[in-house]
Design brief:
By secondary structure, the chain is of the alpha/beta class. It contains 13 helices and 14 strands. The strands form two sheets. Strands 3-4-2-1-5-6-7-8 form an eight-stranded mixed β-sheet, sandwiched between helices.
Length: 385
């Protein structure tokens, strides 16, 4: 029997945590798809994103079995140190190190330093952190770090994982044309429940959902402002439910100030965090996913929605484009506020027969995407020598 390669994954947050968004889902999907081919060893915090209390279902500071191919080391805050990380890295003969992100001291930067002399393949998943829209927050600090990284040769003999050609170009623009980049699209959730939903869609009524952290880059305020402008002159019923982490409290206060101005027939409700395993069935209860974000490197919730047969209303700053042509949703330019209002009008006027067609198109599109064997082949290349 061929010996399975040992893959080390360094990531700030992982399951059972769900509050940090896409990266957790990305690695969970990789593990689910390749559990029979590789052994995975994950080093992560013992708390969820923006939390200080450890998960109640895990043991901290020991290797714990997650499934037959995966072990996880949930490290406590008190043990986060160079000495402890080095001890963990030398505890097993890893073949490949897969490092999530760019700017995290303990889970992105120190792993590169501590593994520099180890003769193993080292891969950094940029996760869109080098895309242009990612510099809208803390731009100066990020740029200084990247300059220093180039000066000291931090990423010498390191590969970068990009999920598409655009991201690959952005990585090379920031780190140099000679940067080694492997392109591998994110993988979908492994699911045995692939059934098209059957839901009621009435004209004049719209049930919307967002699954994203409450922060500026996810466009929640933009969505609420569009709903307010749209419903000022139209007597229509809209329910918009928000699931995700309250990441930016000041931003959420701005959102709430607009929510107070909405007419009584429009409800925007924050529903808290949604457990990962509940995402597919929850999406089936809504007409459309509404997420006009400033940019998405992939957008797991977009694919999850399409997989549930729920069409999407998103910005044109994601890899998911030309949706109206496919009749599975809209990718809207945010340069003019009227664009989003126009699409809301189209969505609310949609009747049952047309919606059934769009829902079926979305479902079939997602099935075709997920069954593309080239996706697995591209991701498998990450773990080749």
């Amino acid at each position: 029997m061929k010996k399975k390669k040992k893959i080390l994954i360094s990531i700030d947050w992982f399951l059972p945590g769900t509050k940090s968004g896409g990266p957790v889902r990305s690695y969970a999907n990789i593990i689910a798809h390749f559990k029979n081919e590789f052994d995975f060893y994950i080093i992560t915090r013992d708390t969820d994103y923006c939390e200080s209390v450890p998960y109640v279902t895990i043991k901290s500071d020991v290797w714990s079995r997650y499934n037959e191919s995966t072990q996880i080391y949930y490290i406590s805050k008190g043990n986060l140190s160079i000495k402890k990380l080095k001890e963990i890295y030398t505890s097993k003969p890893f073949d490949i190190a897969l490092i999530n992100g760019i700017y995290s001291l303990y889970f992105s930067i120190l792993p590169i330093f501590l593994l520099k002399s180890y003769p193993i393949k080292k891969i950094v998943s940029a996760r869109g952190m080098l895309n242009s829209q990612a510099f809208s927050v803390k731009r100066k600090k990020k740029k200084i770090f990247l300059v220093l990284a180039k000066v000291i040769g931090l990423y010498k003999k390191v590969y970068f994982h990009a999920t598409n050609k655009v991201e690959a170009t952005n990585i090379k623009n920031e780190l140099g044309a000679n940067t080694k980049v492997i392109i591998a699209p994110n993988l979908h959730r492994v699911s045995s429940d692939r059934k098209l939903k059957h839901s009621v869609k009435n004209r004049g009524v719209l049930n919307l959902i967002s699954i994203a952290r409450i922060s500026k880059e996810k466009g929640i305020l933009t969505a609420i402002q569009a709903i307010l402008a749209f419903t000022k002159t139209k007597k229509v019923k809209i329910n918009f439910h928000l699931y995700g982490t309250l990441y930016d409290i000041h931003y959420w206060e701005q959102c709430k100030s607009i929510i107070k101005l909405l007419p009584q027939h429009v409800k925007v409700v924050y529903k808290g965090n949604l457990a990962s395993e509940k995402v597919p069935c929850t999406l089936k209860n809504y007409d459309f996913l509404l997420m006009p974000s400033e940019g998405e490197n992939f957008g797991h919730s977009i694919l999850e929605a399409l997989s549930a047969g729920t069409p999407v209303i998103i910005s044109d700053n994601t890899p998911w484009r030309n949706l109206q042509e496919k009749k599975i949703g809209w990718d809207v330019s945010l340069k003019s506020p009227e664009n989003l209002q126009y699409v809301l009008d189209l969505a609310i006027k949609m009747g049952q027969n047309e919606y059934n067609s769009w829902s079926k198109n979305a479902f079939n599109f997602a099935i075709k995407f997920c069954e593309n064997k080239e996706l697995l082949k591209a991701n498998r290349k990450l773990f080749n020598k």
